[in-house]
Amino acid sequence: MSIQSFSIDEAMAGLRLDKALADLCPELSRTRIKSLIEEGMVSLGGQEIFLPKHKIEAGDVVEIAVPPAVDDLPAAQNIPLNIVYEDDDLLVINKSADMVVHPGAGNPDGTLVNALLHHCGDSLSGIGGVKRPGIVHRLDKETSGLMVVAKNDMAHQHLSDQLSDRSLSRIYKALLWRVPNLLKGKVDAPIGRHKTNRLKMAIQFSSGKEAVTHYEIEERYGEAMAWVKCKLESGRTHQIRVHMQHIKHPLVGDPIYGLPRQEGGSLLNRSGFEPDVRDEILDFPRQALHAAEIGFIHPKTGEEMQFEATLPDDFLALKKLAKSVL
Description:
- By secondary structure, the protein is an alpha+beta fold.
- The protein has helices at residues 17-24, 30-38, 112-120, 153-165, 239-246, 261-270, 275-282, 313-323, and strands at residues 2-7, 42-44, 47-48, 61-66, 70-71, 83-86, 90-95, 130-131, 134-135, 144-150, 169-177, 184-188, 191-193, 201-203, 212-221, 225-232, 289-297, 304-308.
- The strands form four sheets. Strands 6, 7, 9, 10, 11, 12, 15, 16, 17 and 18 form a ten-stranded mixed beta sheet that branches.
């Protein structure tokens, strides 16, 4: 149990207790501080305070007790990881296309979280009081590429704030069916859970959450396909996949939002692809989406950090097939 004590000066007088502690204990997230107050782990002059909104006064002595992080429920598993960068506060991972991020129904183990628990071990100081990695943003199982993961509450809070204010940037590479009319475009359409198929997301203008995707064509392959760069302003589930389907340019290989095989084959035939190449493209086993770049401000040092991941082998092979028509 770690116990910290602070004397409140005039500059902090009148602040809410949770706000003051957020300034005094930057290593703890605001959510964690609120929980500790409500659990009776914070006192003023020896008297426990349970209200996060309690106003403090000059001369108050605030004491906060922080229990050690407890082990998370998922088991630590020795699973290989492609680590692009690591320090005491965070990791940048190049996730493979076959890895699920979180344990859940159908995937109780073998996930990125299980791998991180093994890799990080005691370097995890706890997210919300639990010894676990802080997943700032997710990638679908079949989507490969870069993710940033926090090791402690402070890093998790700062990176999550950057995700919210859009200073955490993410750029994806994708192969789309058909060639968009515009070299550059923007899709601004809210996304929510599909009304009848709960496994899917959909454009929901009345009830969806704001979602904006920018795209830019980098290569064209006949009239059949386009290689594009996508930049996210928001981070909704399946966002690029749903937005590209919405503008009638779904991702090659997408099992949920993609084209029927016959329609994709017809496009490839009209663009002059050889039958064996056509079939290989149609058999690509996942959505053609790769998180190629990520940028953020380091939560401790303030340094601007930028990372880029090369395309995985299956994506390189797919792109080679696409280029065969040129």
